[in-house]
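Subject: Predicted fold for TetR family transcriptional regulator, 199 residues

User T.R. writes:
Posting the sequence so we have a shared reference for the thread.
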Amino acid sequence: MTKKEDRRVERTKETMRQTFKKLVKEKGYSQVKVKDIVEEANYNRTTFYVHYDGKEELAKDLIHLEMIDFEYEFCKPTRDNPLLDLTLMRPDGTDVFQYIVDNRDYYDLIVMEDRIPNIRELLLGKLQYIFQERMSFVSDKYLEINDDYFIQYRSYGICGFILEWIRNDYDASPSEMARRIINLLHIQSSLMMQLKGEV
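User M.O. replies:
I've generated the structure tokens; pasting them so everyone works from the same file.
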């Protein structure tokens, strides 16, 4: 009985998240009200407030779940090869850019002017976390390859790289984007290793 109720709750929340994304893209975050969400999703306000305190909590839930999936996709290459040689990695060895295209209803929101608060900053924060906690580089040439300033350089660079791609309406194929990012990452070191798996 509980499992059925849990599935029903998750379906309701997923409908609200999808509706919220659609409305933010159409109207901008500041213009979306709880009233709009429940009317579009065909729920009542009581149902909404059972699950969320307001649209701010719904936004946090949406971003949190998306960043879990983004991390999963971004870390796939080192999960399959705990010591990864980027010079041998093929563009089809990473699915993260295809994942972004497949979920553009979320990623388009990141470059909006009237966007969800912190949506862009949390993508950057997720990249910083990945390079601090999930992935590490191996280099004889740069002993400080995993120091904070290298982590910030990679994180800001990749975040900007993704944002420009989205702003330009995904003008390069996911495979081409993967090829470019592989080239960018192995400038200082060709070896990347997994620090830890999913927690």
